[in-house]
Amino acid sequence: MSPLVITLLIVVGIVILIVIGYINHMVENTKLEKARKKADLTDRIRRCGDLSETMPGQMVSPALKLLLTRLQLQLGESLQQLDKQDARLKARLEELRVLANLGEAIPVTNAPQKILSEAKAKEVRFQLEGLHGQIGRAAQEGLLAANDAKNWVKEIRDLLVQLHVEFFTNLGLQAVQEEQPRQARLAFERGVQYLQKQPDPARYQNQKQQLQAHLARANALVLETAQPQTNEPSELTEGLKSLDDDDLWKKKNIYD
User: Fold this and answer.
1) Per-domain residue ranges for the chain?
2) Where does the chain cross the membrane (predicted)?
3) What is the pLDDT of residues 46-94, one digit of tens each?
């Protein structure tokens, strides 16, 4: 065998090895990308499901329930393309299709939840932030129209206001029941101040009037109190600064 033939065989062998290595690399990358997509879709489906099931009932409208159901369905159908043999996923998609076909007649079974503590208020706020994130991601991927996403961002802002109003109102009423009128007054004052800081305070005029009525009652009770109290509750004065200075809405939003 001539040296030229030997050289050609060596070169061909090297080329074959390179091609095999490249193919193996591409196959491995494809597997990893598929696994990454499956994990991401599974996580997003779980998050949407958790929001749909665990948000307080007073904040879940049929329209919101339907939105979360449709997002789960769309994400689940994408996941099914990656794993067509998943019988459990197939059954879940059938359930979601039945619910989605109900439109706004979809049942809302979420129980109302009392917002009476800073921890509970923060928990619900984190849920609203999570909802905001899911809507933004869905809009970026074309699962939700930009105009619909913009409307839902406004809806989430309203829900955030509702959260604060409920918290300050409930805390104030609880203080009234416990015969602590000064603490009640502070809670109602914080609620009124929060609404006054909103970009469109007129939008929440009814809630403001209700809080002002509670505040007037608390002021009257304070005047009837014989002994002044010097210590205000730390939960009211310090505990909710993180809620008042909500970072979510200070960030630039591409849908605004």
Assistant:
1) 1-113, 116-256
2) 6-27
3) 999 999 999 999 999 999 999 999 999 999 999 999 888 889 999 999 9
